[in-house]
Amino acid sequence: MSDQAKFQSAQATIVRNERFIRTAEQLKPALLREEVEPTRLVQMKADSSAMHGWRASREAGIDTLDSRELGKGQSVIADFGDHRVGYVSFEVRPVGSPPDAPLKLKLTFGEMPVEMAVPFSGYDGWISSSWLQEEILFVDVLPGRVSLPRRYSFRYLKLEVLDTSPKYRVSFFNLRCMTVTSADRANVAPFDHADPLLREIDRVSVRTLEDCMQDVYEDGPKRDRRLWLGDLRLQAQANYATFRNDALVKRCLYLFAGVPDDRGRVSANLFVEPQLIADDTYLFDYSLFFTVTLHDYYEATGDGNTLRELWPTARRQVELALERLDDRGIVKDDRTWWSFIDWHESLNKQAPSQAVLIYTLKRAIHLAKAVGCSSGAELERRLAEAEQAALDYLWSPEQGFFVSGEERQVSWATQIWMALAEVLPQQRNQELMKRLLAAQPEIAPTTPYMYHHLVEALLVVGLKKEAVDWMKTYWGGMLKDGADTFWELYDPNNPEFSPYGSPLINSYCHAWSCTPTYLIRHYGL
Amino acid sequence: MSDQAKFQSAQATIVRNERFIRTAEQLKPALLREEVEPTRLVQMKADSSAMHGWRASREAGIDTLDSRELGKGQSVIADFGDHRVGYVSFEVRPVGSPPDAPLKLKLTFGEMPVEMAVPFSGYDGWISSSWLQEEILFVDVLPGRVSLPRRYSFRYLKLEVLDTSPKYRVSFFNLRCMTVTSADRANVAPFDHADPLLREIDRVSVRTLEDCMQDVYEDGPKRDRRLWLGDLRLQAQANYATFRNDALVKRCLYLFAGVPDDRGRVSANLFVEPQLIADDTYLFDYSLFFTVTLHDYYEATGDGNTLRELWPTARRQVELALERLDDRGIVKDDRTWWSFIDWHESLNKQAPSQAVLIYTLKRAIHLAKAVGCSSGAELERRLAEAEQAALDYLWSPEQGFFVSGEERQVSWATQIWMALAEVLPQQRNQELMKRLLAAQPEIAPTTPYMYHHLVEALLVVGLKKEAVDWMKTYWGGMLKDGADTFWELYDPNNPEFSPYGSPLINSYCHAWSCTPTYLIRHYGL
């Protein structure tokens, strides 16, 4: 998920379940730490063929850093060799006369070359500039050791001397990053595949997930850093195929279940520091993904105790979603709701949300049976109604597509989610996806999140070759464009796209992009 | 003293005296701490009659701070009621939705209104901008408590919200400063005087000294922060009349004596963090002031042990100065030396330095006698020669002034130091000062440091009324112009003067300005 400032806030009354919160607290992971060093010094060069117009180019070996003497206005960029999430420290020593004034430094952290090359001061996007990773700091006593208290998400670090005095310069030593993650690489099965591109996509997916796994499954370690339900669901799926930190999934489920509103609805995302707070943002699809995530967790672990404890919360999300159905059995599309589905200004959310509900109902029914709950039969009846309503009112036989909203919009998102929800029988479902790929409606996927669902839908309907092709094109495209970890946003046809007004603020290691490892390993691609 | 970047550096070999350094270390004071709160909120208003064109104006009571909610681009200025040196802390709490982005704050500390009103970004002076007291910081977790690790010297603090997010604003609580000083107010005798202006000048002098007394006698707590010999001499004099932290004077003398160069010369200033380092700046007059400061310390304390230990260092400064005398017995004025005397571009330093040498010789002879050293007779002979040389070669009978340098410059500084050195007999000495005040040569005092010597010279020659008048005009002028503590720089005829190119970087609590309390109390004004 991404920053949600576009979603309106609802004043919600939170009903805390302290037992659930305690359970979540007990599951808080100890983070694994590893000290890493930069690998080289780089310069950023303008290159119109490179992503955002900038390319990192080797300037010197990292062993030359110690001997570099920087005066006022001089800078150096260290390349840490790969995406890193952690805490940075270094020593700084004066060269020349004893320092007769403090050292004023600016540090700029970047996941991508553009963040080193384009000044943050020009940023004027609509989410907070406070996400841009920079520090201005003073060192009063030299030589000195600087240990920055904040965590950064970066590959490149620019050390810039804003001022010293005419009497001295400085050199930097022992530049390090202490990385943190709750993902244990030792648990990941080696992945051997004949196709080197799939191997590389898998490797970078795993790195992406690793760097997003912290105290919770974070959205993006650079920006947002919170726990979002839609992303949790995908991260958990990737986790079952790789790191198997299932306790972290359990922890996140208990966190969401710990702070529902007074109707029992779970929030789209949580703040966990300084204390657990449910954000005042509720999304139709994300609330339902609580139920889906619990389903997947139970499938992966067989943990019946957790299922029994959290089933009421899971069932409640379905009940609340069903309350949104109109007389026809279709999700009401008015101004009182928000559903995410994808970042697209013009995307109508009605039909894909109907599909998400159907998708969830099928999994809720499975859980009801597992838990021995009598509501299973009722849920089956509602599922049948919702599916029939979708066929009756959202299916356009003339077009061969599902349509959404008053204007009967034909979007990729609608077909993809209807395919995932398996509303049509298998053969017709496959034809739907074939027709989608052939027709290429204008309202297309914009995010890795939506591309993930496209690829999975193709796999669900049996179009394995097309699924692999799309994955290679999209995630392989990110690799070609220099991804160390997979990005929050990538539109091959519009590489400068940012829903926030600047690529500087985009997150380049983002949970919802980590799914190829799940798709590859789970579906045996 | 002030920043010395204008003085050339000499490569010096330091010969450490570890015993002296240990003695100094053992005398390191425990700092007294006091928590102070701001007293009101202010705005800075443009006012051409105010110092630097800005005046602080009450905006609201400090009790309204808690309820103020600041969003992006908003700020508030807290007035701490008086000059403060210490550590600042506050709490910051979010208002609105849970904070979905870090808080980015800018803090600006100012001793004077101009520092709140004129952006530091425009500073382009010739000493380091790193002295400008500002911080940009991020608060990732809200509510949060911020305890800034650096010490600031200020009265005003601007809290400026650079960014939050559209979803929240912030309020500030429990804004505090933990002040630090090694000066104990309980030791200062109450000062009762019929003249309210003298009472106020005394009070502000004492405050100035108090805020400069830290681990050492600092130059200025905002800028420089080091131990300078010329300032130490004056602070010690003021200290004997007030706080009586004589151990701190002793500590500073041992610090200087601990790191002479291989010729035995003491540096003009010392760095004490992270370890004791002699700066590579040597000044003719400042080195001699080691001897003068030891003399004054012995006079004030009768501490014969310290005198005996440090006498060789004190004597050595005089010997080295005598080596600079030419065949005539006059201080050589060539390109190989630096003497401070005063901040004045055109001031020739020869004659005032000759006077400083004579002034010092008289005190060295006193010390030689006290310590029972046989060199006293030799010093008396050299004194007689130096005085006679001054009369023979620097005295201009036609003008009735001492002249300096090849161009026979007549300056205030020369006459003042000759008067202090008492080269002329008492009556002629008084006439010299009267003539000076009447003639007003063009090369005039520019700093409080030189004005101090002017006032003391008037007292030495018996012109008490003139001394008081000058003190009231000069230090009283600073008070009228809004001084909470006395300033590094003040030229009533040129209030914007800064030797650094901007009043933003000037220090407004400066050691060499604290002397009126000494002059008033010592001379019983």
UniProtKB/TrEMBL annotation, chains A, B:
Annotated ranges, domain Glycosyl hydrolase family 78 alpha-rhamnosidase N-terminal: 38-178
Membrane-spanning segments: none
Keywords, alphabetical: Hydrolase
Alphabetized GO MF terms: hydrolase activity
InterPro entries per the UniProt record, alphabetical: 6-hairpin_glycosidase_sf, 6hp_glycosidase-like_sf, Bac_rhamnosid6H, Glyco_hydro_78_N
Domain Alpha-L-rhamnosidase six-hairpin glycosidase: 189-518
UniProt superkingdom: Bacteria
Protein name, entry field: Sugar hydrolase
Species: Cohnella boryungensis
